[in-house]
């Protein structure tokens, strides 16, 4: 992949990572609830999920989904249902209590990782987006595998850094979350529910 083309791809990827979505919202929420260190598991799960979607897009699943609308519809409903479930869980999460942050039970790392992974995989529209986005940066004169590795690694690093920044930002406003955390949790939960309801209806 030519360096100048990679720079353009880097800028485009940064813009994509900064676009609000379920995983950035989840990183922000978990960063506020559990701290940035524990939110790392959530962020890594999301990065793995996005990398899998990039791989699927690169090797033709987007074409399969376009040819089989019923499969896409089923994936959209499953993804929407998961986002609604995640939103309900966030809505029911109690606010942080002053002085109890350290003693409060934390979900195991694998549970946080799974939430990040499933949140990334729950939107099949991302596969179609990558199917249209990534070919713009492919050089047909170069090997596909090498370009895939560069593009996937670039996206993974950028997405990781953006979500980590969100988690750190949330942790810095933790004192506010201890006072108004219940409202914060419910707001984030409501956004997830709205995303889950809108996803299957999106054209």
Task: Describe, in short, the structure shown.
The protein has 203 residues and is mainly α. Helices cover 78% and strands 0% of the residues. The chain contains 9 helices and no strands.
Would you give an account of this structure?
The protein has 203 residues and is an all-alpha fold. The protein has one domain. 78% of the residues lie in helices and 0% in strands. The chain contains 9 helices and no strands. The longest helix is centred in the C-terminal third of the chain and has 29 residues, at 144-172. It is globular and about 55 Å long. The relative contact order is 0.24. The model is unreliable at 97-104 (pLDDT under 50). It comes from Aquipseudomonas alcaligenes (Pseudomonas alcaligenes). Keywords: Cell membrane, Membrane, Transmembrane, Transmembrane helix. It is a multi-pass membrane protein. InterPro entries: LeuE-type (IPR001123).
Question: What's the layout of helices and strands?
Answer:
Elements: H1 3-18, H2 22-34, H3 36-58, H4 61-67, H5 69-92, H6 109-121, H7 125-133, H8 144-172, H9 174-198
Helix pairs in contact: 1-8, 2-3, 2-8, 2-9, 3-6, 3-7, 3-8, 4-7, 5-6, 5-9
How confident is the prediction overall: mean pLDDT? 77
- What percentage of the residues does DSSP assign to strands (E)? under 5%
Shape: globular
The count of helical stretches stands at 9
The total strand number stands at 0
- Oligomer state equals single chain
Separation of termini?
Answer: 33 Å
Helix coverage percent:
over 70%
How many domains, as an integer? 1
Radius of gyration: 18 Å
Low-confidence stretches: 97-104
- SSE order in H/E notation? HHHHHHHHH
What does the largest sheet look like?
none
Q: What structural class do you assign from the helix and strand content?
A: mainly alpha
């Amino acid at each position: 992949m030519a360096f100048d083309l990679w720079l353009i791809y880097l800028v485009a990827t940064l813009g994509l990572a900064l676009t609000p979505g379920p995983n950035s919202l989840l990183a922000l929420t978990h960063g506020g609830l559990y701290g940035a260190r524990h939110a790392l598991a959530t962020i890594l799960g999301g990065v793995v999920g996005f990398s899998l979607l990039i791989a699927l897009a690169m090797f033709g699943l987007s074409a399969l989904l376009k040819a089989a609308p019923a499969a896409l519809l089923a994936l959209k409903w499953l993804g929407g249902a998961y986002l609604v479930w995640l939103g309900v869980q966030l809505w029911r999460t109690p606010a942080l209590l002053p002085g109890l942050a350290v003693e409060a039970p934390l979900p195991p790392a694998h549970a946080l990782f799974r939430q990040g992974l499933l949140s990334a995989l729950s939107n099949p529209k991302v596969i179609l987006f990558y199917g249209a986005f990534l070919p713009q940066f492919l050089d047909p004169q170069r090997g596909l595998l090498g370009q895939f590795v560069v593009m996937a690694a670039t996206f993974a690093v950028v997405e990781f850094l953006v979500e980590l920044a969100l988690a750190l930002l949330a942790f810095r406003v933790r004192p506010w979350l201890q006072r108004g955390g219940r409202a914060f949790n419910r707001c984030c939960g409501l956004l997830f529910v709205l995303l889950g309801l809108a996803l299957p209806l999106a054209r």
